[in-house]
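Lab meeting, action items carried over

1. Structure of the two-component assembly. Owner: GW. Status: complete.
Input record:
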Amino acid sequence: QKEVEQDPGPLSVPEGAIVSLNCTYSNSAFQYFMWYRQYSRKGPELLMYTYSSGNKEDGRFTAQVDKSSKYISLFIRDSQPSDSATYLCAMTLYSGGGADGLTFGKGTHLIIQP
Amino acid sequence: GAVVSQHPSWVICKSGTSVKIECRSLDFQATTMFWYRQFPKQSLMLMATSNEGSKATYEQGVEKDKFLINHASLTLSTLTVTSAHPEDSSFYICSAHAAGQGRNTQYFGPGTRLTVL
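Predicted assembly:
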């Protein structure tokens, strides 16, 4: 079993729809959860960052973490064609030291149809 | 702000040669830099963690003598793939943690695509 599971898609939805992206993980020690957006031939760009369980909203984006189910989600409201990209979930442990390396899902390729 | 650059963006080399990839934080100081590798249709996989002025910490299964990492300054880390072979062909991405920011705030470079013939 991989540490982080994410459906690679592609996921195709019409413009304006609500998009739901999800990841499951196996290591209960993960405490920090992130969502990155990656365009073709570019590095990942941080979208959302959440510590432990709960919801976080930023504009059209909402991140949810359910540690009891080891399940995280990213919702995109009023989706736009410019949202078309690969969305990567990532998570990390708390080591007590400095910054930590991230464990990524494979990424979901999202296509927003005009 | 928080821009990370990588050079080169792509490189093709012959088997047995060495390739150096640079990762620079352009407008901030990076106390920690990370190197990741991404094979087609696979996750980004952490290779090593590099702290300025100290030896890199490698993930299990990553050969430290093959992937040499140098983090000589707060704005530059280099990854050298020594004696490259076709199986080393991959997309190499670095990230940098900005000193004084949230502990898990990492800014990624655009990546370097390495093809070994």
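2. GW to write a short summary for the group page. Key points so far: The CA atoms of residues 24 and 76 of chain B lie 5 Å apart. The first strand of chain B starts at residue 4 and ends at 7.
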